Amino acid sequence: MMNEDFERDEEAISSEKADVLAYCDHCGFAIYSARDALVITANGDRIHRDCWSEYAEEHMFEFAKSAEDSERFDCGY
């Protein structure tokens, strides 16, 4: 009986692993659906949609630069 339970648990784990599309480059947890994920075009990272706000805050200067560093806003100060 114990062996049968173990084999069923092994099958469930194997099945779950097969359903993983990728692992989130932000939190590290599995991504199971493309609908719940984003691909960051700047660097190819794959993240959960729910991780976007925190990811964007941490990687802000990979996507944008400070206006102080922009020639467009150069006021000569």
Could you please describe the fold and organization of this structure?
This protein has 77 residues and is α+β, with helices and mostly antiparallel strands. The chain has a domain at 17-66. It is built from three helices and four strands, in the order αββββαα. The strands form two sheets. A two-stranded antiparallel sheet has the order 1-2. The mean pLDDT is 81.
How would you summarize what this structure contains?
The protein has 77 residues and is an alpha+beta fold. The protein has a domain at 17-66. 36% of the residues lie in helices and 13% in strands.
Top keywords for this entry?
77 residues; alpha+beta; two-stranded antiparallel sheet; 3 helices; 4 strands; 36% helix
The N- and C-terminal alpha carbons lie at a distance of 78 Å
The residue-averaged pLDDT reads 81
Radius of gyration (CA) equals 21 Å
Report strand %.
Answer: 5-15%
Briefly note the structural class of the backbone.
alpha+beta
The biggest sheet, with number of strands, parallel, antiparallel or mixed sense and barrel status, is: 2 strands, antiparallel
Runs in which pLDDT lies below 50 for 5 or more consecutive residues are: none
Task: Give the number of DSSP strands.
Answer: 4
Show the helix and strand layout:
Elements: H1 2-18, E1 22-23, E2 30-31, E3 37-39, E4 46-48, H2 52-58, H3 60-63
Antiparallel strand pairs: 1-2, 3-4
